[in-house]
Fold:
Amino acid sequence: MSVRQLRAIGSDVTGCRACPRLVAWREQTARDKVARFADQSYWARPVPGFGDPEARVLILGLAPAAHGGNRTGRIFTGDRSGDFLYASLFRTGFANQPTSVSRDDGLVLRGAFVSAVNRCAPPANKPTPQERDRCLPFLGREIAALAELRVIVALGSFAWDGALRALRANGVSVPSPKPRFGHGTEMQVGPVTLVGCFHPSQQNTFTGKLTEPMMDAIFDRAAALAHER
Structure:
C-alpha cells in the first residue's frame, strides 16, 4: 500500500503548478542555465520524495536546489548539500553508495526516505508562508503513507517548523509553546521523534558549523530511536 500511495503522491507533486512565482522561477532557472550545466536538460518541475517505502526515518529539507534537485529531479541530488548528506547516509548504513548525482545512478536508501517542505526551488531559498502552506499537504500525505515511520530528522529550522505543521495537520497533538529548533534537539510528537540537525548547506559545512561526525551522530541516533519501539 505504501508504494502505491507514495507513487500517487509523487505524481501529484510533479504535476503541481499552484504557486505562480515558483513555477516561473524553476522554469527560468532551467532556461538560464549556469555554465557548468549548460549542456544538460533540467527537470524544472516540483521534486517528489525519494527512498524506502518502509522507512522508519524521514529526512526533511527545505526545498530542492535551483541547480540540484530542480536540475536532476531528485531531492538533494547534484549539489553540494546532497554530497554531504548522502555521504553521511552511506557511512551510517542508510544508503548503498555515498554519492547522488542523477535519478538513474543506482542509489538505494534502506530504512530512510528523503523529502522537503517545499517541492519547487524558491528564489534565494526562501519560500513565502503561503507557498509553504500550499505545499505542506504533500508532506502530510507522505508522513501518513510511511506506515513504519518512527523518526523525522529536520535539516534546519524551516524543516523543523514544517514537520510540526504537517504533523498537526494530520491530527497529531503538538506541544505548545512549540519547541525551538536546535542541532541534536529531540522531542516526541505523537508516534514520531523529531530530531533537529543543522542543514548541510555550504554555509554550515564550509564554516565547520556542521561537520561529518556531527551529521553521522544524528543519523546514528535516528537509527537507534527508529528501532526502540
